[in-house]
Amino acid sequence: MEEEANPSGLSVDGFAGQGPWALARPGATVPVFSRDTEAPVLGQQQWEAVHGRWAQGHSISAIARDLELDRKTVRRCLQHVCWQPYQRKAAGSLLDAHRAWLNERAPQVNYSARILWQELRAKHGFTGSYVIVRRAVVPLRLAAAAGGLTQCRFETGPGEQAQCDWGQITVALGEARCEIHIFVMTLGYSRRGFAMGFLRERIEDLLAAHEAAFAHFGGRCEFLLYDRMRTVVLGTKAGKPQLNPKFAAFALHWGFTPRLCQPYRAQTKGKVESGVKYVKRNFVPGRLFRDLEDFNAQLDAWQLEVADLRTHGTTHQRPIDRFAEEARALAPTAGHPSFLQAMVRDRVVAQDWLVAVDGNRYSVPFMLIGRTVQVVREGGALVIRHRGAVVAEHPVLAGRGHLSVKPEHGPGASARNARHRFPVPKRRSTDSGADLSREVEVRDLAVYEHLFGLQPTQVAT
Question: For the whole model, what pTM was predicted?
Fold first, then answer.
């Protein structure tokens, strides 16, 4: 009788006692491990099965055949009196020496693996690849994202912190629709708010809004919190935010400390975010406004009659009631000089004898073309000085793109005045036979003094 061919080259005797299914799985009970291959990991149930059969008197070979394990694995299992899960030994990494720095620096650069890798190579002598840093940053980023899902409300004491932000909404001013930029400042303890509308979000608007808020509250908090708006912070240098110089001077003038939210973490100032939404949803709907002045007048009345008297959803108290306690902790601002009025701005007089201030232009005497003048706001007027002397004064123009020109500042007015004061002598009669082509007109030197602002000694020389 012819024997059946065995293409696998394995002895059929090796499958004795394993049942008919074993022939369909060649090599199933003959696990072969190379030196570089890890031994199979036993689960808890397999470990208990090995010890159970050993306790019943089964041999190592029998246990290995029954459970389809290698005999060395069975011996290793029997050497342990209790089951232990397998743990791979942590391999060393080139980043091990920089872990503390990496954990601290990653949030500051918004978990950018590229930036971290560049700084490690440039400043810390790191020689590893970008992929190593990228893999190390992944769990840090996931942990930060998980932490952001559960926010812990940050409460401050009376007078400690206020939060500031802008909101935008389109309303009808008269017959035209216009986008209004609403500045909101919310006191952290009492939740009392201040809001004011502007047509833009310029640095001058921001500073004016702050001074109006200080007057509204009768004081200011020690710290004011902002997001990274360009009117507050210009950017970062060596990992540190660089404040707008004008805003930094404003903060120093009023004595408060600006604080900034972390990048992409606007929820840090959730109190004022809620205040902006409240103004949009409760004040604006259903109202009609003639102009921006009427908008702010109605907004002021709404704050006093509605916003201050509502029961706040978080504190469960009226903001005006909690403000009675917070007002005593605010730094008083009454009588403090205005920064906008105290700010001196240098301007160079243009060829059209105008200077630009806050988007509007104002005239100065034409003799000052090319000179530098100092502009100061005093009340509702702009006072322009040159070398300490007042050379022009104009009422402050509202809006932008307007002109305030006084005729006496132009060269035409000076020439007209000179003609009236010093008329040109009459020409001599041609009958005298004099050569009129060589006649020279004689003028008083005071004409040049008036035209060019020169001293008599300067004219004489």
Answer: 0.53
